[in-house]
Design goal:
CATH superfamily of the domain at 386-639: Endonuclease Chain A
Helix content: 25-40%
Shape: globular
CATH architecture of the domain at 386-639: 2-Layer Sandwich
Radius of gyration: 24 Å
Largest sheet: 10 strands, mixed
Number of helices: 18
CATH topology of the domain at 386-639: Endonuclease, Chain A
Number of strands: 25
Structural class: alpha+beta
CATH class of the domain at 386-639: Alpha Beta
Length: 664
């Protein structure tokens, strides 16, 4: 993965013979890819959290004139896309259905909006929903509320693992169940009563998964295998792959594409993913939360932070806060979204509903004047087509980082990626050492910001620990370190060695050692919000569902892909990648200011970045003391810590963190 000849264009660089210097441009994106070209002239708009993202999607769906194509991991008909007293009501009929106060529905429901635009008198559109579904996986993960949480007489296994309806609202559950009965009767794709609202379910063949794992670039680490265990890493990867993409494409071919717009995002079309950037501790506009789910959340909080401490009894009434991102796209990059949808749709849709993929970009798709600095590329993980371009992009882009890398990701357990970062940094330091009069003490520092949640499933703990160990942060998971030291688990990697107990173990460099040897400074954070519940100060996890990476204020990627083996080599995923300060620097400023509570908005300046890093680190420590003092934190940043220890290894099959909705 460190050889880039297949992903870049060779270029000629003029060398100043006197100074022996030359200038060349960094090729962040994947070059020489006819099937996924780098496009120019796109207009991008980045959004933070569900309130912003879903409001834009709702408006664009209402304004649609011909087609709405939605690819999703899950779909929740009862989810309100817009909420609150000022939410858009679209027309009197939809507006009159919104209840006053905080009773459901607090805004326009996703399912109702799709029915409205497909049946209205003027400009009715055709909506196509392409949804991942697996009888057992969906029953466990409840990705289709009102359908996947309803018993199906034909599947005893699915009924055994099926979750109860997740929200404390029978009216809402009935609405969702009735919606599915109309549009997916008996679970039959394309059999709904509304010919303009077409629902198709899809899955991934086990053969595609095995071929994908073996395809180039091949995985360095093999998933854990335990004979007779169907839910080890190998079993979950091969038997429970998911379609995890979430793009939306609207009016791509209507009027030559003049109104075409699309989205690439991490947001799932399920109500849990709606939140505001304020991340209020118990926002009444988030979904209602049953008492059982609150107990599960509080138990998880204790086991991750203070296993021997008391179980708190905070009376939350609504789902936890969520952090995520979306990108609205207008321009030539939409062609790849169209191709992705058509190929997925035609593979699973009944013959009568299959459509033709357009080979050329519609002529009226808006295109801005070309700026060579503003490239956009759609990359994927797609087992059926053996496409691993997301992995290739992650490895290539990070190899050029020189000032900072910001990674905010739901799953952070891909040790191969950590080894890649260290190898590339080692190459840079070796080259630096060969320069005259350039001591290692002067090597430019690369600042690595990592923002992650607690792994919601114990089986994700070992790989998360291994990843952090590679990056000098093993002390953030001390109990797992002790577990490994006792010989209870092998760290089975190419760079492991025999430990004192005979098991395979990784070296544990400290943060200072990484800085001294590789010029790499690492910060690992989690997010918490603070507020008063029942006259008591409370601190609640902000669940990080994000899949965001920013580099040096000139590169950004976001979408559906997590930093784990499942997203890089098994599940279908889709990301957008873009170059240019106009996008990366602006989003960096917003993210840093949000998480730090205004303490810093970051900087892309090499001279300023050390100060930013120090402010970030200090704020985490200040907030830890603030919690001890039972006061409100500034922003959301805390040092990452997790106090679990286990030998169980799962392949992040999106196991729910509660007894209800999954966290895909």
């Amino acid at each position: 993965m460190t050889k880039h000849l297949k992903t870049q264009n060779p270029i000629d660089v003029a060398i100043d013979e006197a100074g022996r210097k030359g200038n060349g441009s960094v090729q962040w994106l994947l070059e020489n890819r006819e099937e996924m070209p780098i496009t120019y002239g796109n207009r991008l708009h980045f959004m933070v959290c569900g309130e912003e993202g879903f409001a834009e999607i709702a408006k664009d769906i209402w304004d649609a004139r011909s087609t709405v194509d939605v690819v999703c991991w899950g779909f929740d008909p009862g989810m309100e896309l817009t909420r609150g007293p000022m939410c858009r009501r679209f027309d009197p009929d939809l507006g009159n259905e919104i209840k006053k106060g905080n009773a459901w529905p607090r805004g326009v429901r996703y399912g109702r909006l799709l029915e409205a635009v497909t049946t209205r008198k003027d400009n009715p559109v055709t909506v196509r929903l392409l949804i991942w579904y697996d009888a057992r996986g969906s029953a466990r993960q409840n990705n289709m509320p009102g359908y996947s949480d309803v018993d199906q007489s034909w599947s005893a296994v699915a009924n055994h693992v099926r979750q109860s309806p997740p929200y404390a609202n029978p009216e809402r559950h009935k609405y969702c169940a009735d919606w599915w009965a109309r549009h997916l009767p008996g679970g039959r794709s394309g059999a709904g009563s509304n010919p303009r609202l077409q629902v198709v379910l899809r899955g991934i063949a086990a053969g595609d998964v095995k071929a994908m794992l073996a395809a180039a670039p091949k995985e360095e680490d093999q998933p854990a295998y335990e004979s007779g265990n169907p839910i080890d890493e190998t079993g979950l990867l091969e038997n429970y792959p998911t379609h995890h993409q979430k793009p939306v494409l609207i009016d791509y071919a209507h009027d030559g594409g003049s109104k075409a717009v699309g989205y690439v995002m991490g947001l799932n079309s399920v109500t849990d993913f709606w939140d505001r950037t304020a991340h209020e501790i118990d926002d009444p506009l988030r979904e209602t939360w049953s008492a059982g789910n609150v107990d599960v959340e509080l138990t998880h909080e204790r086991t991750t932070q203070d296993p021997k401490g008391p179980l708190r009894k905070t009376a939350y009434g609504h789902t936890k806060p969520y952090q995520d991102y979306a990108c609205r796209v207008v321009g030539p990059a939409l062609k790849r979204l169209h191709e992705n949808f058509e190929r997925g749709w035609n593979l699973f849709a009944p013959a009568a509903l299959q459509t033709r993929e357009l080979t050329e970009l519609p002529p009226k798709v808006p295109v801005l004047p070309k700026n060579p600095a503003h490239g956009v590329q759609i990359v994927r993980t797609q087992p059926h087509e053996l496409d691993k371009s997301i992995k290739e992009l992650y490895f290539q882009a990070t190899s050029f980082a020189r000032n900072y890398i910001y990674i905010e990701n739901q799953y952070f357990f891909y040790p191969e990626f950590a080894r890649h970062l260290k190898r590339e940094r080692g190459k840079f330091c070796d080259a630096w050492a060969r320069l005259p009069d350039k001591p290692m003490t002067d090597v430019p520092v690369l600042h690595l910001f990592i923002v992650i949640p607690h792994p919601e499933d114990d089986g994700m703990v070992p790989r998360t620990f291994d990843m952090l160990t590679e990056l000098g942060a093993s002390t953030s998971m001390p109990e797992q370190a002790t577990h490994v030291d006792k010989g209870k688990l092998d760290q089975d990697y190419t760079d492991a060695h025999k430990g004192k107990k005979g098991n395979k173990v990784l070296d544990r460099p400290s943060l200072k050692q990484l800085q001294d040897t590789l010029g790499l400074k690492v910060s690992v954070a989690r997010l918490r919000t603070s507020g008063v519940i029942g006259n008591q100060m409370a601190y609640r996890e902000i669940y990080i569902h994000s899949k965001l990476m920013l580099i040096d204020d000139v590169f950004v990627t976001l979408g559906s892909a997590n930093l784990n083996q499942r997203s890089m080599s098994v599940d279908s995923e889709i990301n957008i990648a873009a170059t240019g300060q106009v996008w990366a620097a602006d989003l960096r400023g917003r993210v840093f200011e949000l998480h730090s509570g205004g303490r810093t908005n970051g900087s892309g300046d090499r001279l300023e970045m050390p100060k930013v890093f120090d402010k970030w680190e200090k704020l985490m420590k200040d907030n830890a003391q603030t919690r001890k003092n039972n006061q409100s934190m500034q922003g959301f940043l805390l040092e990452f810590e997790d106090h679990r220890a286990t030998s169980t290894m799962h392949a992040s099959v999106t196991v729910p963190s509660s007894d209800s909705t999954a966290l895909a």
